[in-house]
Amino acid sequence: MISYCQATRIYFVRHAEKAAVPVGDPGLSSAGKGSTVVLAGLLRDKSIEGIYVTETCRSREMAEPFSACIGLPQSACSHDTVHQFLFNLLVADRNALVSGHSHTVLTMVQELGLKSVWNGLGKGDYGGFWVVSTQQREGCGGFRLSLRERSYGANRTVAAIASAGLPSLPQPLEVNAHS
């Protein structure tokens, strides 16, 4: 019989609604900033010990209220090291928040071998986050992963579409840490 340690959770969140300007690296709109406070309230009691953000202004702004709320600094995660970043998250065995974009958070979820009901998110699809629960095997390594898809904030497009009849996913997945 395989024995697992206590579950940890990684919360992947797509940034909230972005502002129209500046074009290159916009921050969050006023509605988006309001959503960050809602997210901070949802996550405040989740015992998160690591906050990771992609390199854009809106990803950093997305995590800022939560970071301030719990007094934990943000750390940067880079696109070129996704596999190593995910591996480090798994073996750290602690709850974490990862703030990114539709393509980065979905890519990370998929790289963990999990399947989201979303093949992609449109420009206006804000408010989604993905909760990956992990359980590390005792002894021989490897992880049991499962995914829950959630929503937050004023723009709950993701939740509205999901509640319209998309299937719930997936069954837990076994992942070997020794690759």
Give the gist of this structure.
With 179 residues, the chain is α/β, with parallel strands linked by helices. It contains 5 helices and 7 strands. 31% of the residues lie in helices and 22% in strands.
Q: Mind explaining what this structure looks like?
A:
The structure is a single chain. By secondary structure, the protein is of the alpha/beta class. The chain has one domain (8-175): 3-Layer(aba) Sandwich (Rossmann fold), CATH 3.40.50.1240. It contains 5 helices and 7 strands. It has helices at 30-43, 57-70, 82-92, 102-111, 157-162; strands spanning 8-14, 50-53, 74-76, 96-100, 128-136, 143-151, 173-175. A 7-stranded mixed β-sheet has the order 3-2-4-1-5-6-7. Helix 1 (30-43) packs across helix 2. The longest helix is centred in the N-terminal third of the chain and has 14 residues, at 30-43. The radius of gyration is 16 Å and the shape is globular.
CATH superfamily: Phosphoglycerate mutase-like
Radius of gyration: 16 Å
Please give the count of helices: 5
Please write the string of helix (H) and strand (E) elements: EHEHEHEHEEHE
Q: End-to-end span in angstroms?
A: 22 Å
CATH architecture identity: 3-Layer(aba) Sandwich
Work out the strand percent: 15-25%
User: Overall pLDDT, averaged?
Assistant: 80
| Helix/sheet category | alpha/beta
For the sheet with most strands, the description reads: 7 strands, mixed
In helices, the fraction of residues equals 25-40%
CATH class: Alpha Beta
CATH fold-level assignment:
Rossmann fold
Number of domains: 1
Major β-sheet strand ordering: 3-2-4-1-5-6-7
Number of strands: 7
